[in-house]
Design goal:
Chain lengths: ~450, ~220
């Protein structure tokens, strides 16, 4: 069987696509997760900072025309519980610095709370500034309080969240990969099932595929069915053609042969008889050639679709011998046989019959008048050995190896009707059965053809 | 022998009938299945020669119906097809043998003889030749003290003599009868077979007499 050229794998490709999709989705999930996590952490920090700022603002009062700010302990204790974050603050009134860190970044003046990110003494900080009007009279002052905190705690929290999110993303990716492998296997299972069911078919089963398949495979199965029905039609046509050709050739030959036979029987002169005999021999020769050409064609058609079955070789040989018995008897030739009745092999009955018939036919044709032909079959060295031995003049050494060629005949061709295809047919059939065929001369000079076939295991 | 020939090709049927006549057979011809059915019902035959491809159907159908009627007449199928698978199914349907067109009439006779021998069982078909009994089917010669099995050509030679007792048969006629077309033999080969036959017949009231320059004839002395 020719090797199938493949490139890539649909299953791998599908699994690859699915895994890549899984990876992208996992990454996107992690990013989205982190984005929201950052937002939530920042909001939490902001609200703490704002609460701290507000509590400082709330603690500012005027006592006896003096602005008194008593920063409550809780204003800073509520911050920085998580880590070593440092907290800075600044209080100013109407833009004039009162207390805290003067160098904190200056926010734009506004009464509503301002949130901003900034840098302070090489640290990234988050800062909230809130203000309120304070004082009496017609001109109240604007008291503004800023509280800032370094980001260490937030970052720590974010890092933890990032680790968790990554773990979650990896888990997701792992599950997605498993699913991808499983899904791609499932998706192509119907293809494998189809291939298996086609593989299991016998060599001559060319019927349409009846299996239920997914929609996507309908066109493939349709094409397969169309192909096998075309193949079947072609095979049927060639077998029909062979049969029809045989009929067309043989019937007119039969008319000619019978009429010539009658003429021969009733001819008065020897010269006439001899001529008519020549005609009959020619007809027989063309008839045999036609038969063997057709047999040869049949062998070619059948070896392409071998129908192997268990065969009782003794029975098959007995049938062949029985068939040739009357013909051999006409020439006073006796067919002896020594056949091991237990021999079983695997093969195509029709083809083996044809091969053995050709070999026995040869033996009967080329053995001498009033002699014997011997058919032997036995198991030898783990193989089946079938021998056809005649008492003719045997093969001539210089042509023996050429006898398998088509239309090649031995030296007795002048007196014996033959087409030269018999051995070719036998060899082709035996080769198709993994056997071989060997031409030798027997000890007493006759031709000895030995066929070796594998034993049915 | 009475033979029913079922063959649709008119030319071939005519020639076959004529050729079988030459061998001394009576032949009825049917050109199609219905004719064959009709003839096989009204007459009884010793042999049916059946073509498979017929204009009104398959010869196998006839064969099946014929055997279903428990008609045991030997049937030889004449086929123009070569596939052995075909032949096997023919035998399974109850044909006794098959022969492939174009065939040698001597081969046909040989096959008929083989079938009759197979079918006759212990039934014998003896001809009395003076002190000797000749069984054509088994090919044996029996005398008081002896039983001899004849070889095929000896048998056929004796048959032709028995069928034409007291008729002079030429060497050429005998050669035609005993040898097939592809056997190159001289007329003198006949002498060998006649000598063998004389030896088998022994010193009895049956003799094969040489008619010098013409041939041989079989004579049976009255007791």
């Amino acid at each position: 069987m020719p090797e199938v050229i493949t490139r890539g794998s649909l299953r791998l490709r599908l699994a690859g696509f699915l895994i890549a999709t899984g990876a992208i989705m996992a990454a996107v999930l992690v990013v989205i997760f982190l984005f929201f996590a950052r937002q939530i952490t920042t909001e939490a920090q902001d609200s703490q900072l704002l609460a701290s700022t507000t509590s400082i603002l709330e603690s500012a009062t005027y006592e006896n025309g003096q602005l008194v700010i008593d920063i409550p302990y809780s204003a800073f204790s509520m911050l920085g519980a998580v880590s070593d974050d440092r907290v800075f603050y600044r209080i100013q009134i109407d833009g004039t610095f009162l207390s805290g860190y003067e160098n904190l970044p200056q926010p734009t003046a506004s009464l509503s709370p301002q949130f901003s990110d900034g840098m302070f003494s090489d640290d990234v900080i988050r800062m909230v500034t809130a203000a309120r009007l304070i004082g009496s009279g017609d001109e109240p002052s604007t008291l503004s309080v800023s509280v800032a905190q370094t980001n260490d705690g937030t970052n720590l929290r974010l890092r933890t969240i990032f680790m968790q999110a990554s773990g979650f993303g990896l888990g997701f990716f792992f599950i997605a990969t498993l699913l991808a492998v499983w899904v791609s296997k499932q998706a192509y299972a119907p293809l494998n099932n189809l291939a298996t069911s086609i593989d299991r078919r016998g060599p001559s089963d060319l019927s349409a595929i009846r299996q239920t398949v997914p929609q996507e495979m309908a066109s493939l199965v349709g094409a397969l069915n169309e192909f096998s029905s075309r193949l079947k039609r072609a095979l049927d046509r060639s077998e029909d053609f062979i049969a029809e050709a045989a009929h067309r050739i043989r019937t007119p030959l039969a008319v000619v042969r019978t009429k010539t036979d009658i003429a021969h029987k009733t001819a008065r002169t020897k010269k006439m008889k001899d001529t008519l005999r020549e005609v009959i021999l020619s007809v027989d020769e063309s008839s045999r050639t036609a038969s063997q050409l057709l047999d040869h064609a049949m062998v070619n058609v059948r070896t392409d679709s071998l129908e192997f079955e268990p065969i009782n070789l003794a029975q098959l040989l007995a049938e062949v011998i029985e068939r040739f018995d009357p013909i051999a008897a006409m020439r006073d030739i006796e067919i002896l046989h020594r056949i091991d009745t237990t021999i079983q092999t695997f093969g195509d009955r029709v083809l083996l019959n044809s091969a053995f018939s050709n070999l026995l036919d040869n033996a009967i044709k080329y053995t001498s008048i009033d002699s014997r032909v011997c058919v032997e079959a036995h198991v030898f060295a783990g193989n089946i050995s079938v021998t056809f031995l005649d008492e003719g003049s045997g093969f001539q050494d210089q042509v023996r190896h050429q006898l398998f060629e088509r239309f090649r005949r031995g030296e007795q061709i002048n007196t014996t009707v033959g087409s030269g295809l018999g051995l070719t047919i036998a060899r082709d059939v035996i080769a198709a059965h993994d056997g071989n065929i060997n031409l030798q001369n027997g000890k007493e000079g006759g031709a000895c053809v030995t066929v070796t076939l594998p034993l049915a295991s | 022998m009475r033979i029913l020939l079922v063959e649709d090709n008119v030319e071939l049927a005519k020639a076959t009938v004529e050729r079988l006549h030459l061998n001394g057979h009576a032949v009825d011809h049917a050109a199609n299945l219905s004719g064959a059915n009709e003839l096989s019902r009204i007459a009884s035959y010793d042999l049916v020669l059946l073509d498979i491809m017929l204009p009104d159907g398959d010869g196998r159908a006839f064969l099946r119906a014929f055997r279903a009627r428990k008609d045991n007449t030997p049937v030889i199928v004449v086929t123009a097809r070569s596939q052995v698978s075909d032949r096997v199914s023919i035998l399974d349907l109850g044909a006794d043998d098959y022969i492939v067109k174009p065939f040698d009439f001597d081969e046909l006779e040989a096959r008929i003889r083989a079938i009759l021998r197979r079918k006759s069982g212990s039934r014998s078909n003896e001809v009395i030749l003076g002190d000797i009994r000749f069984d054509r089917l088994s090919g044996t010669l029996k005398s008081e003290e002896d039983e001899i099995e004849l070889r095929n050509r000896e048998l056929r030679l004796l048959e032709i003599f028995v069928d034409s007792t007291n008729v002079i048969l030429s060497k050429a006629q005998l050669v035609d009868h005993l040898f097939s077309f592809d056997e190159e033999v001289s007329e003198n080969a006949i002498e060998v077979y006649v000598a063998r036959l004389r030896k088998h017949l022994g010193d009895n009231r049956v003799t094969i007499r040489t008619v010098r320059g013409v041939g041989y004839k079989l004579e049976i002395e009255d007791a």
